[in-house]
C-alpha cells in the first residue's frame, strides 16, 4: 500500500457528514418514538374504555343524546356524499362501458363498488371530519377549561363519563349510516343509469341482486365497526391530551381529522384482507 493510500485511510471522516447522519437518525428516531407513544396511548385508552364499560354504570340518556348528536345529525352529510358518489360513478362507468357496448351492466359494478368499498370508506371519512373533529373540540375545550380535572376531583371517571358513550355510539352509528349510504348510493346510480343508458329500474335492481352477495354486504358494513372505534378513540385521545388553550383545541381537531383519515385508509386494506380469509 502506497503512502498516499495510507494517508487517505487515516484521514478522519468529514465532521459535517457525521453531523448530518446524526441529525437524520435523531429525526427518524424521534418520529418512530412519537408514533409508538401515540399508538400506545390510543391503545391504552381503548383498553380503559372497555374496562370502564363493565365497571361503571352506563348513562343511557347520555348515550341516546350522543346517538342524536353523532348519528342523526350526520345522516344528511353522509347521504349527500353517497348519492352523488353513486351518480358520478354511474356516469363515468357508462362513458367507459359504452365503448364496448356494455353500459347495460353498469349497475353490477356500481353495486359492488359502493357496497364493498365506497359506501363504508366515504361514510367513515365523513364521520371522521364531522364527528371526530367535534368530539376532539368538545373534550379538548373541557380539558383546557379544567372541567375534566373537576370530574376527577369529585371522584368521577372522565373515561366512563366522556369516552365510553362516544366510542360506543360511533361503533354503533357508523355501520347504520353505512347501510343507509349504500342504499342511497345505489339509488343515485340507478337515476343516472336510467337516464343515460336507457334501462328500467327493474333491470337495474335485477343486476344488483344477481351480483351482490350477502358476503359483500357484511364485509363492507363489518369494517365500519372498526372504523367507528378508531374515530371515537382517536378523537377522545386528542381531546384528553389537548394543551395550550384555544390554539391547542384547534390543533387537536385538525390532527383528529388527518389521523383518522389516514388510519381509515390503512386499516381498510388490512380489514379487507382479513375478511377475504373467511
Number of separate domains? 1
Separate helix tally = 10
DSSP E strands, number: 0
Q: List unreliable stretches of 5+ residues.
A: none
What is the N-to-C order of secondary-structure elements (H for helix, E for strand)? HHHHHHHHHH
User: Which overall shape is indicated by the principal axes computed on the Cα atoms?
Assistant: globular
Share in β-strands: under 5%
Q: What do these coordinates show?
A:
The structure is a single chain. This protein has 278 residues and is an all-alpha fold. It has one domain (57-276). The chain has helices at 3-10, 15-55, 60-71, 75-97, 106-144, 147-153, 158-197, 201-211, 214-240, 245-276. The longest helix has 41 residues, at 15-55. The model has no long low-confidence stretch (mean pLDDT 88).
Summary?
This protein has helices spanning 3-10, 15-55, 60-71, 75-97, 106-144, 147-153, 158-197, 201-211, 214-240, 245-276. With 278 residues, the chain is mainly alpha-helical. Helix 5 crosses helix 8.
Characteristics:
single chain, 278 residues, globular
Question: What is the element layout, followed by pairings?
Answer:
Layout: H1 3-10, H2 15-55, H3 60-71, H4 75-97, H5 106-144, H6 147-153, H7 158-197, H8 201-211, H9 214-240, H10 245-276
Amino acid at each position: 500500500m502506497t503512502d498516499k493510500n495510507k494517508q487517505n485511510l487515516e484521514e478522519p471522516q468529514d465532521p459535517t457528514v457525521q453531523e448530518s447522519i446524526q441529525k437524520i437518525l435523531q429525526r427518524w428516531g424521534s418520529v418512530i418514538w412519537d408514533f409508538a407513544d401515540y399508538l400506545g396511548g390510543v391503545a391504552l385508552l381503548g383498553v380503559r374504555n372497555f374496562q370502564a364499560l363493565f365497571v361503571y354504570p352506563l348513562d343511557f340518556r347520555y348515550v341516546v343524546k350522543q346517538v342524536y348528536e353523532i348519528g342523526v345529525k350526520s345522516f344528511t352529510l353522509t347521504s349527500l356524499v353517497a348519492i352523488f358518489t353513486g351518480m358520478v360513478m354511474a356516469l363515468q362507468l357508462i362513458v367507459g362501458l359504452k365503448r364496448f357496448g356494455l353500459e347495460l351492466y353498469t349497475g353490477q359494478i356500481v353495486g359492488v363498488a359502493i357496497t364493498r368499498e365506497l359506501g363504508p370508506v366515504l361514510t367513515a371519512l365523513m364521520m371522521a371530519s364531522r364527528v371526530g373533529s367535534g368530539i376532539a373540540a368538545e373534550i379538548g375545550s373541557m380539558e383546557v377549561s379544567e372541567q375534566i380535572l373537576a370530574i376527577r376531583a369529585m371522584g368521577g371517571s372522565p373515561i366512563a363519563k366522556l369516552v365510553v358513550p362516544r366510542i360506543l355510539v360511533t361503533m354503533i352509528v357508523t355501520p347504520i349510516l353505512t347501510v343507509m349510504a349504500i342504499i342511497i348510493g345505489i339509488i343515485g346510480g340507478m337515476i343516472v343509469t336510467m337516464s343515460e343508458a336507457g334501462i328500467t329500474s327493474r333491470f337495474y335492481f335485477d343486476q344488483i341482486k344477481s351480483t351482490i352477495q350477502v358476503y359483500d354486504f357484511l364485509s363492507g358494513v363489518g369494517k365500519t365497526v372498526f372504523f367507528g372505534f378508531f374515530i371515537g378513540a382517536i378523537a377522545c385521545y386528542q381531546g384528553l391530551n389537548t394543551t395550550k388553550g384555544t390554539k391547542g383545541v384547534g390543533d387537536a381537531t385538525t390532527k383528529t381529522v388527518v389521523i383518522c383519515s389516514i388510519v381509515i385508509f390503512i386499516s381498510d386494506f388490512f380489514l379487507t384482507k382479513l375478511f377475504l380469509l373467511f
